[in-house]
Specification:
about 525 residues; Rossmann fold; seven-stranded mixed beta sheet; rod-shaped
Amino acid sequence: MVHQPERLCDKNRGVSSSYAASRLARLVVDTLEALENVSFPLAVPGINELTDSHRALQTQLSTRLLPHLLQDAVPAIVVFGGSSGAGKSTILNSLLREDVSEASVIRPTTKTPVLAFHPDDDMAMTDSMLLDMCDVIVTENAIPGIALIDAPDLDSIEDENRVLSQKLLNAADLWIFVTTAARYGDHIAWSALTEAFDRGMTTAVVLNRVPERAKSPVRTDLLKRMAESGMGQSPLFIMDDAGPIEGLLDPSAIAELRSWLELMRSTRASQSLVARTSRALMPAIRRELLDLADAASAQSDAAQSLRESASQAGVEPAAGMMTAIDVGRLAAGAPTTQWLSLASTGGPLSSLAGGRDLLFPNRTLARRDRAAAEIADAIDDALRIALTQALIDTRDRADFGWSMSYVDTSAIRVGIDIAAAVEKAIDDWHRDSYSAAGRVKGPIAKKVSQQGLADLLRAAAGGIPGVQSALTKGGAEGGVARVQRALRQRSQEAIDSVVAAYVVIIDDLKLPDSSVLRIRARELVDAVWEK
């Protein structure tokens, strides 16, 4: 589509330029709203570059493209950028013939960017977002139709300055790259220049402070570099080394550069520059929108991967817990020993163990209830230990799975109160047991209270064979089955609660919608050719 503009123009031959511009402006606004709603909450590989690209795209659309679509009279934005100490501020001051931007040997000098434009452009710049980013100078010495910005150094030692400089470059219609004979090959600044050119931005180069003896070889080498980077047609301005200087450069030193800027204005080349840069940037904007859409899809994939990893963490601990319940492992040791003691001849539960009826059952009911509670407490203690270990195992597996993910989860904090989860499971199981005891109608229901029977049901569900046998003889076999099912359910719920603590973090993420970005990418490219 991008490679066949003539077909698009033919297709839209009947579309008015004002309608096309209005449609494009509306699409840019829609795209900005879509980008505003896009976030990348998961730290996948390349997240920093992705965030930078997201921010740069928003800057380009909001501060460079949209203002020109909404108002044709907006001046061309010309940004002076480059390495520290290259003389950007001095050149800007000299062009305007007044000190509007601080120039000094102390680095970094330009901390807050300076935006300078002619009073004729004051109205057109009223709503520009650049006004919030820069110190604004309105001066008669500026060139009408050309807004000049002195940006912070690209290689500033301060992160905030570097980020701001990149934002301003993204907002530029023209980037004047200022460098020196000693520093024109600096990697950071040169890389930024070539990247901007590759994205379709119009560029010019000022080679400042060139000693006479080095002028020829440096010029030759720089032109070679520019040609190899595809910038062979970009203007190159060479300024002689004026030695130590305070204040403004001699007018002759910047005459060629000022004449070129004035020529742009007088021939309306500045507006052609705006239109050309806007159109040239569209393929890059489309590509970046599609890259962001791919990244949005990758975020969803990463979230699903983490979700599945957390869910898998509970599978083996749950299987182990169910096996322990099924084979009666909770009854091993103290619970069974306690039953044998309390159910032996003369013990409070001996009548239950022997299946005998009592002549006066109510006289010993309280003793049997207390004995049943002791055995149930022993089962609870065994359950508490086993379930705690299962939850810890689940948590550790989830942590390990996330630590091995390609997503950096080190900053994610999962709050889990294992002790509280275990106690909740046991309390819920107690209620289940009491409810099940109320449904038992066999003779065993007359030998203990409902609470005592609930305790015996838990002891049987925990796997004590003697209790299981006594309750079966007493007509409570169905109750034992119900309480054991409840034990499995409550144990599973406790394990699931640990898994859920991880899953809910993923489910609460505001994941981006890739489809919206893909739609905007297609619509923007179509609309720019209509315009």
